[in-house]
Write the structure tokens for this entry.
Amino acid sequence: MRAGAAPVNPTSTAMATVHLTFPPDPAYVRTVRLVAAAEARRAGVSDELLDEVRLAVGEACTRAVALHRRHGLAEPIDMAMTDGGRFTVRVIDRGPAALAMNEPGETTGAIMAQVRAETGRMPVDEDAIMANVGIALLNGLVSDLDVVAAAGGRGTEVRMSWPISRRSAH
Amino acid sequence: MELSLATRSVSDHTVVEIGGEIDVYTAPRLRERLIELVGSGAKHVVVDLGRVEFLDSTGLGVLVGAHRRLRAGEGSLTLVCPHERLLKIFRITGLDSVFVIHGSVEDATAGGTAHTARTGA
């Protein structure tokens, strides 16, 4: 795991970005979500939102790890946290870019209806449930959520942001 | 925090008390335990989430899978979840309509619809 902070200007309170790069291994997801919650707190996100930040970042990272493993990608996953006007987290995977075209909101309802219909009656693909429940959670937790193609044409970027309500600590 | 799993019997129910964090790293252990229980003949399983500090989609997927296996064998999976922060996750994902969720192990093992409490909406 590699981490680094890159303040635009270390002497001012200007926007700063903290980067975290981690292997596509489930063992690191906990560390990453705890770092994100700690950084959100430092940036001034209100206490009641910290659980949401922790869960949403965990879901985005879990999705990225699953994607890398499914496609046999050993490359690391990147997370970037920026404390501008809002606290913005970006989780960037290197999976097939076509996945970015699936608008998360479109599939969620249909898949959840399928889960409800099939539960207890027919086989349900647990991996599919997890992936799509993860997207449902992201949609439900984060009002400002974007899934876009990552810069460079490979992979997807899950971008989430939360309001900053307190003065940040430096 | 590590995942902890403790199993006990209450009348004709098998109660699995979970503590700690259920995520992509720890969920496989929970899945194994639940599959073992079903394999060893447990019919009515109560999963107690009272000491769970974190639950993500991977954990929800494991619970849905166990629910399906138990239902296929005429059994049941009931959840105990007294925490609003976790109930919210079930509501957001629509899974509050899939599971029967009680506020306490006593309610969950008492049986009968009179004791059925849906998520606190």
